[in-house]
Design a protein that fits this description.
It is a single chain. This protein has helices at 8-13, 15-25, 44-52, 54-67; strands spanning 3-7, 28-33, 36-41. By secondary structure, the chain is an alpha+beta fold. It has a single domain (3-67), classed as YefM-like domain (YefM-like fold), CATH 3.40.1620. Strands 1-2-3 form a three-stranded mixed beta sheet. A hairpin with a 2-residue loop joins strand 2 and strand 3. Helix 3 (44-52) packs across helix 4 (54-67). The radius of gyration is 15 Å and the shape is flat.
Length: 85
């Protein structure tokens, strides 16, 4: 199972291809907007497994933690692009 990251505009422009990849290959997609992860697309069967399988829950938690930005106290983030100012 592979996880790919795409910009929201790419996901919008290629939704059919992404959906086919999710269904046929069980690829998970992290959708970013302004360089920040906003959503995950995964197949229904992967979602059901996630709800019922501890290993799947651990894997999804790892992915979310890996993609969640870590900010230092007092650090300023540019709201336009999500980058450190």
């Amino acid at each position: 199972m592979q996880t790919r990251t795409v910009a929201s505009t790419e996901a919008q422009n290629n939704f059919g291809r992404i959906l086919n990849d999710v269904i046929q290959n069980h690829t998970r997609y992290v959708i970013k907007r302004r360089n920040a992860p906003q959503a995950i697309i995964l197949s229904l069967s992967d979602f059901e497994n996630l709800l019922n399988d501890r290993d799947e829950q651990t894997e999804m938690t790892r992915i979310v933690r890996e993609l969640t930005p870590v900010y230092n106290l007092g650090e300023t983030i540019d709201p336009q692009n999500g980058n450190h100012a």
